[in-house]
Write a structure and sequence with these properties.
Elements (H helix, E strand, L loop, with lengths): L5 E5 H13 L5 E6 L6 H11 L16 E6 L2 E7 L8 H4 L2 H6 L3 E5 L13 E7 L6 E6 L2
Parallel strand pairs: 2-5, 2-6, 4-5
Antiparallel strand pairs: 1-7, 3-4, 6-7
The chain binds adenosine-5'-triphosphate (ATP) and magnesium ion.
Adenosine-5'-triphosphate binds next to strand 1, helix 1, helix 2 and strand 7.
Length: 144
Amino acid sequence: MIGARIADLTEPAMAEWGRAFGAALPHGAVVALHGELGAGKTTLVRAIAAGLGVLDLAEVTSPTYALVHEYRAANGVVVHADLYRLRRADELDELGWEELLAGARAALVEWPERADGRLPVTTRHLALSHLPTDPERRRLEQRG
Ligand SMILES: Nc1ncnc2c1ncn2[C@@H]1O[C@H](COP(=O)(O)OP(=O)(O)OP(=O)(O)O)[C@@H](O)[C@H]1O
Ligand SMILES: [Mg+2]
């Protein structure tokens, strides 16, 4: 996706894009990953985590019980939030959401719409979608 904001990518191409994207993220970046069930958000989080220098990529899974996973990376902690099960945005306050984001090397957030106004204005937005005609690829849109 060189120079473009939208691309239809196979899984290996998505992994390569994610690694490069992760490696280029500045300290403290927050990335929102939008997309329906099975669109590839966690798969892309794993690639971005690889680019951020997360050592144990097997740890990068959908947090089933916890809303948040924290991974040790080269230059700090990478936060991975999956807000699918969040019932109310103010539950994030109980998690110490702001401090969590403020202290992270980067934060990668699945189901960001559930956070309802609790993401920084500088958040980078990525959207994944299925392609009806091509099950091998996903559409990736970068929205700043
Ligand atoms: N181009 C692609 N990019 C990403 N994933 C792909 C691609 N092609 C196929 N897949 C497959 O699609 C599935 C995506 O699952 P994944 O758990 O990453 O989705 P998700 O958006 O995180 O789902 P959920 O909403 O349940 O959290 C994986 O099985 C992955 O192997
Ligand atoms: Mg997921």
